[in-house]
């Protein structure tokens, strides 16, 4: 079994380029039911290629059916587009010197419209637009350093302060609804609060309105399998041994949470992870009758771990690298260790002594890997990870310094 797992671990790394090429065909498109609003005429219904806000800000790919060819539209060629599952994009012009045409996502619509644009650095910018003044008005806040002088001592002190230009913009727009207008003095430039405030204003002034999109947390499920090899330091009297376990099967499941308030590159993971460790070594030991003992150590551990990880991953490309780190707690469902002594000149029997092992371990975990999207169905994950745990034995220093290396392949379901 160990040889099979070793071959499997090697093949994961060798197959990485092939998996990337194979998955790229599925990752090239992600058509979902949607529509396009032409400059004139009726709405075109079919499928829209949805591949992230960065791409969606400059290009819309549309096809009438799964069998039809795709047509590409720029912001100057249509009024906008949308997805039936949620997400409406409107062609607009950035209020900057270049007057760049882009697609902006509509977050709330009515007498006052709230729009969001994702720039090339993947940062989000918010704009307000009214029916009477179609020019976009930027909504910004910023932190600045202010120099304050103590009037008594004349000492200078630099203080960080936050300014809210966007409040003045909305204050002027919302003059016809004092109830909502007065709440602006406490408003921060946060998407959920902006949507709530604009929706309240549109309700106050009446007329048709629509909340286009509400950010929600995303939860995805993963399953993975691979191999695990660990090392420990074993101390017997004055002798120290570095032991390496066999390569043994490892597998688990994970929940991947992307909170709506997080940076899009960040996610939280909680896993259930099964690992095994087996060590065997034979050496010359010293016993009650002096040296000459043939001593054999056997250790057999099986654990169910609960890693809690923070992952940073790239969100673009056919192959998307990621790095993650966090803590792991392992419950040892099997923890057996013993040493047996054999002294040929006195007896043919072996004397067996048990070594008490801890029922649990805690430590840190670090991993790197790649995600290969396979369209709307999910993504392939290839990962290598290291973990380091506290003392394996109940008595400190007997079996300690556990370091694990694993190579895993898995699949995450959903986008």
What does this structure look like?
The chain has 415 residues and is mainly beta. It has 2 domains: 35-211, no CATH class; 217-413, Porin (Beta Barrel), CATH 2.40.160. Helices cover 14% and strands 55% of the residues. The protein contains 6 helices and 23 strands. The longest helix is centred in the middle third of the chain and has 15 residues, at 191-205.
- Radius of gyration, in Å, reads 31 Å
Q: What is the quaternary state of this protein?
A: single chain
Could you state the order of secondary-structure elements as H and E?
A: HHEEHEEEEEEEEEEHHHEEEEEEEEEEE
How many β-strands, per DSSP? 23
- Beta content: over 45%
Unreliably modeled segments: 18-27
Give the class-level CATH name of the largest domain: Mainly Beta
Rounded to the nearest angstrom, the distance between the terminal CA atoms is: 35 Å
Biggest pleated-sheet summary: 11 strands, antiparallel
Measured as a percent range, the helix fraction is: 10-25%
Q: Compute the number of structural domains.
A: 2
Strand pairing plus helix content: what structural class? mainly beta
Topology-level CATH name of the largest domain = Porin
In the CATH hierarchy, the architecture of the largest domain is Beta Barrel
Shape category: elongated
Count of helical stretches: 6
Mean pLDDT: 86
């Amino acid at each position: 079994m160990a040889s099979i797992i070793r071959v499997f671990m090697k093949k994961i790394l060798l197959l990485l380029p092939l998996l990337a090429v194979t998955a790229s065909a599925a990752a090239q498109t992600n058509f979902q039911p949607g529509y396009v609003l032409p400059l004139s005429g009726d709405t075109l219904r079919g499928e829209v290629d949805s591949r992230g806000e960065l791409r969606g800000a400059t290009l819309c790919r549309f096809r009438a059916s799964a069998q039809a060819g795709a047509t590409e539209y720029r912001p100057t060629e249509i009024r906008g587009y949308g997805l039936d599952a949620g997400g409406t994009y409107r062609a607009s012009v950035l209020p900057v010197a270049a007057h760049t045409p882009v697609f902006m996502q509509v977050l709330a619509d009515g007498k006052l419209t709230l729009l969001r644009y994702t720039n090339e650095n993947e940062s989000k910018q918010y704009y307000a637009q009214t029916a009477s003044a179609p020019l976009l008005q930027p909504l910004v806040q910023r932190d600045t350093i202010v120099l304050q002088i103590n009037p008594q001592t004349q000492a200078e002190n630099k203080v960080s302060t936050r300014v809210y230009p966007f409040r003045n913009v909305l204050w002027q727009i919302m003059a016809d609804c004092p109830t909502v207008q007065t709440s602006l003095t406490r408003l921060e430039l946060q998407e959920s609060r902006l949507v709530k405030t604009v929706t309240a204003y549109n309700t106050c002034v009446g007329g048709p309105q629509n909340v286009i999109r509400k950010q929600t947390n995303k939860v995805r499920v993963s399953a993975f399998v691979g191999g695990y090899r660990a090392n420990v330091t074993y101390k017997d009297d004055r002798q120290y041994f570095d032991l390496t376990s066999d390569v043994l099967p490892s597998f688990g499941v994970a929940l991947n949470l992307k909170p709506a308030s997080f940076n899009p590159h960040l996610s939280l993971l909680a896993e259930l992870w099964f690992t095994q460790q087996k060590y065997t070594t034979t050496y010359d030991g010293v016993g009650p009758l002096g040296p000459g003992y043939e001593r054999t150590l056997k250790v057999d551990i099986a654990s169910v771990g609960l890693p809690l990880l923070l992952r940073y991953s790239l969100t673009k490309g056919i192959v998307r690298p990621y790095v993650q780190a966090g803590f792991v707690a392992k419950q040892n469902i099997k923890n057996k260790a013993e040493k047996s002594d054999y002294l040929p000149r006195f007896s043919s029997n072996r004397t067996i002594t048990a070594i008490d092992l801890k029922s649990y371990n805690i430590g840190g975990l670090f991993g790197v890997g790649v995600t290969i999207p396979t369209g709307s169905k999910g993504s392939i994950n290839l990962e290598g990870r290291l973990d380091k745990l506290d003392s394996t034995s109940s008595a400190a220093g007997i079996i300690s310094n556990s370091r694990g290396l694993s190579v895993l392949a898995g699949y995450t379901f959903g986008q």
